[in-house]
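Protein: Enoyl-CoA hydratase
Species: Acinetobacter gerneri DSM 14967 = CIP 107464 = MTCC 9824
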Amino acid sequence: MQNISDMQLDESLQLEQEKGVITIWLNRPESRNAMSVKMVESIQQIFTAIENDTSIRAVIFRGKAGHFCAGGDIKDMANVRAEAMAAGNSKPYADFNRKFGAMIEQVDQAPQTVIAVLEGAVLGGGFGLACVSDIAICLENAKFGLPETGLGIIPAQIAPFVVKRVGLTQARRLALLGMKFDGNTALNIGVVHEVAEDQAELELLLNSTIEHILLTAPHASRVTKALLHRSLNEPLEQLLDEAALQFAQAVGSDEGMEGTMAFIQKRKPKWADLD
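Structure follows.
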């Protein structure tokens, strides 16, 4: 397994690791942390490296300099345009766009709990990334939106994840109007789970979220997240049969026994002690 401290990542990302939590900082403040191809590839590299690492309990996405992510990088788009003109077809555009979708899907399916801390611009691809987080918290004055249609393009890779997050009715309105909205509206339509009035409250919400994650059993959390994803696509009877078997395994597992004993003895379970 690759150690994340040894990975050669693009400078557009900065990594921090404390106990069982990794923070991925989007680090392109000059462009409000717009997503470059190198940034996308580095995020994929990180999630591939930690996929089977049960010591990593949570991954936090944040943006440097007061913004989360303003969408795709315009300079990269210009480079792809040159490739497309040289090739005489649109395949370079499709490949460029699909790479972002593959990254979003990988984050969505990651076994770790993914937290998005949203400030400033949360637009386009940044909005899509927020929509695949397990827990999203934001500042009240954050600016969300899907501006693609106003730019003459479409939210191609983001759309399915927005629909899963907020439902088709809201997704239609957001994508077809392309308007921006604040953190309170994001809370009302289901993009985020909690809203902070200021930076101090945002950090308190983040710390509380991490504390709760570390109290949950590592393997049980992974199995639960996978089960929730499966519930959208699989026949109910088959899913419930398999879930019953997983429940039986969990009850008899080391985690199940430790969790029960911790509850009876009124103490934290051993997995919560990461010191």
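Remarks: The mean pLDDT is 94.
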